Amino acid sequence: MASLESQSARDSVAQASREIRAEAISLQENSEPLNEAETLNPEATLSLEGAVNLEDILYLGDRGDFEETLYVEEPESPEDDSVYRGDWAARGTIGGRASKSLRPEQIVCEGEMTEREEKSNPEENLKPERSPSPEENLSIEDLELLEGRFQQCVQAVAQQKAELERDGLREEIRLVKQKLCKVTKECVTYQYQLECRQQDVAQFPDFWEVLTTKAAQLSGELVQLQDAYQKQKEQLRQQLAEPPSQRDGPFLQEGRQLSAQFEHLMAESHQGLEEEYEPQLLGLLERKESGTKALPKTQAEIQETKEALRPLQAKARQLHLQKRNLEDQITVVRQKRDEVQQYREQEEEMEE
């Protein structure tokens, strides 16, 4: 690519030198002054010294539009001196400066140099001359300068985009951290409540085991007492089945007393167990029911908080987009201001 650009630049320079020499010869023959040559508009030309308009550097339009800004009318035939001189006057200077009239000594020298080159290179004179294109009028240094400035502009745009993206990511990270802190506090609160409920639920099996053990113990005692009661009852039945006698009277009375005492003890023990363990059992059941009832409520509260966060998230996204749009507008205004400043500086330099 670099070799092609260098070759095209060399061809353009050689073509321009040949045209200048041919024009000098034609002017020498016709003895017409070259002071009538008009200069092109400095804004439409490119300077070979590096003063290039920013619009030419950042130009992204069609190639035809760019060629129209640098359009140079080609002569119809090299033999027609009048047309060729008109074309030369319309071209002006490539660097955007006022064209200067050639002195007679320069015309004669250029004519002699042209004759010498034509004699030394007759084959090149016979070759058909290519029409110079706007790209060939630029030298290698100009092309490299344009490419360097274009790369600088691209790098500046990429850097600006990276800064905007970084600022946006920082804002998003800050918002996410705020939401994370809030959600973390809520999670800690709910976790504490859940641990309290879990402790209550964890203590329930211990109470249940104690009550079960106590009930089993009392059941064993009850079975023993029932066995003893049955034995005593059988003995008393056997005694009743025997013929009555006076000795049986005290035994029967004692048996009745023991039976009444046993029933009284059983009733007292049963009532004592109910009075001691029934409140604890009821309290555990109430805690379990309250825990089961509070669990859906806490889940519903968590869902409500999540739904309340959704509009805030949407609003944050909208504000972020508005911020990005405003930053883009500010960037565009700054670029336009810089372009106007550069254009004014160029105008001042041209006026000077």
Automatic annotation (TrEMBL):
Composition skew (Basic and acidic residues), residue ranges: 113-133
Keywords for the protein's UniProt record, in alphabetical order: Coiled coil
Keyword Coiled coil: yes
Coiled-coil intervals: 215-242, 309-346
Biological-process GO terms, alphabetical: intermediate filament-based process
Record carries keyword Coiled coil: yes
Signal peptide extent: none
Name the record gives this protein: Syncoilin
